[in-house]
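[agent] plan:
  1. take the single chain provided in the ticket
  2. run structure prediction with default settings
  3. attach structure tokens to the ticket
  4. add a short note for the reviewer (M.T.)
[agent] executing step 1
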Amino acid sequence: MTAVRWWSLVLLLGGTSGCALGLGEPCEVSTDCPEKLICAIPRGEGGDTTRGVCDYPLKQENERCTVASDCERSLTCSNHFTPGERYGTCVVRKQNGAPCFMDRDCVSGNCAGASGTALDGTCR
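[agent] step 2 finished; step 3 output follows
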């Protein structure tokens, strides 16, 4: 078997494939994920709270983000507040009366009047 075909087979069967190795793999709370990944347990009512998938940890305040869900639940991504901005940093959610893009941008969890396409809502 040639070296090219051998490496193709290794990659196809899930061998060493670079940075994605382990990402999205099933895990349990007591099972370690590969370095720099955590066992993320889905949030929600009921269900199994011991099983999840290996994922990147949520980002802390002032760390770079591209979407609000990159950040810890008490934070949002600042790129929501600058139209056209792709990257931002994780920031504290906005207080009532502040402009917002989506519910997650507000401490209250309510972004009234938001279209979801512009910074046109108000935290209530």
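[agent] step 4 note for reviewer: Strands lie at 26-28, 38-40, 51-55, 64-65, 75-77, 88-92, 99-100, 111-112, 121-123.
[agent] ticket updated
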